[in-house]
Amino acid sequence: MAKSRGPSFILELDLATTAKDDEKLYKRVEQAGRNLYNACLGEALRRLQLRNQSRDFQRIRRLPKGPERTAAFKKLNAKFCFTEYDLHAFAGSIKSSCWIGDHLDINTVQKIATRAYDAVEQLAFGQRGRPRFKRAGEMLSVEGKSNKQGIRYRHGRIEWLGLSIPCRFDPDDPVVAYGLEQRLKFCRVLHRTIRGRRRWYVQLVLEGRPYQKPANAAGKDVVGLDLGPSTIAAVDDSHATLETFCVELKSKQAEIRRIQRAMDRSRRATNPANYKADGTAKKGSRKWIRSRRYARAQARKADLERRAAAHRKSLHGRLANCLIRRGKVLRSEKVPYKAWQKRWGKSIGRRAPSLFVAMLARKAAAVGGRLEDIATRKTRLSQTCICGRIKKKTLGERTHRCECGVEAQRDLMSAYLARHVDHNLLNADQAHDGWSSVESLLRAALSTYQAAKQSTASCSRPSGVGRTGQSGLPAKAERMAVKIGRSTNRKVCKDRDLVAGHCLQGPAGKSDVVAPGPSAGCESPEKAKSFAHADGPTPWWRYVQKVLPFRTPRL
Ligand SMILES: [Zn+2]
Fold first, then answer.
1. Where are the domains of the chain?
2. What's the confidence (pLDDT) of residue 543?
């Protein structure tokens, strides 16, 4: 059957599975599907290796690129049975000769073989590394080829080799109603672990474009963008914005980090023999003992990461819709993701700007717009002024200041200039003419950004090390000083004066840290303990021990 090309989109529905359905689906996807995939992958890798060892291969690879070489490779692949259809035949023979055949239909089997073949083909072309075999629990989905055989969707139910599972959805939801009217290409069954429970979904792969909500109708303007590793500036005729990317994910990241630290402590405690005296892990293969508490933490972390990814996707979608409402033609400098990953790996991993740009381009195309890439080297937007002067800036310089008197935040300025770029050429006259109306917008955007940044900074817990508080001591030490002052047993009370004195002798000569007077009173040691626990999982006394010149009691 010919593959149907053209755009497609996905409608995902919940499956209302019983325990028995779950068992059967798991056996099909995770056991039969995974084993078959690994068999196909192994076979494809073997065939590729045989092909690459042959003399013909060595001869053909030296030929000049062109149709002749392509045809020769095609012939060679056929000789070594390294083609998609040969792998289908291999998978079919496995299906008919063992237990896997009892759990999968031929279409699903062939799609799994295609998946393995695609992975190895990319390796053959040098587009990726060696594909890995799937370990237990790593096979998440299987799919069919059409809605006629194998996995089928019929009247609100999924039917597959004797299974008939109802789908859960709201028929009045316009997204669902629209999706169900489109032609169905094929179905995909997948599972996710949510709060420790396995849940099943079906993805209907549909023909056409996804549903467009009336509220997200595309705007007519041209929007200039400037993407940074953590910020995004957008400027059009009547709006200018500068925002931090995915700032809402911060709390989840902090929680993930705490779990990671707990897991590390647990791993070290249960495997002391696997670490050197300096605390680094020994090399080579070792036996690792993982406690039950560790396994629980691992599951909790996996769930948090899943939630963070889902949250990030929704934030990306919201931001993309917001930009497209302003204008469906978007212009942005080409972003060097690889270089960013090397330099700001953690932030990039958390915010996924590349994923956002891909989503933005897809959404813009769906409404008939486009995302235009600007070659950074040709335009050098971050160094250019509307008067045409080009002046290099260091990364630390966040403000654009020019001799002609123009002053603006650097990213907003780049975004403004990006609006006026056509075919990699900056239209400086146009940019110059529009400047007077936009200047105040950029200034307003900057002050909004700074206010937002300040409010998030005051909400989140300040990180102590390296950052100085108002008194000149690290911020955390300042808080500790107040805390110790409040607390109680005799030794600490004595220390309190020490700390307070230290604070008051800060470099500026004065301090906002109020040393609590004797009226604070000495309470019981139990109360002191409760203070320590109220602070949450971070043992504050550890920090105090490092920074302050006395020992606090271990609590
Ligand atoms: Zn200038």
1. 8-207, 222-270+294-457, 475-547
2. 52
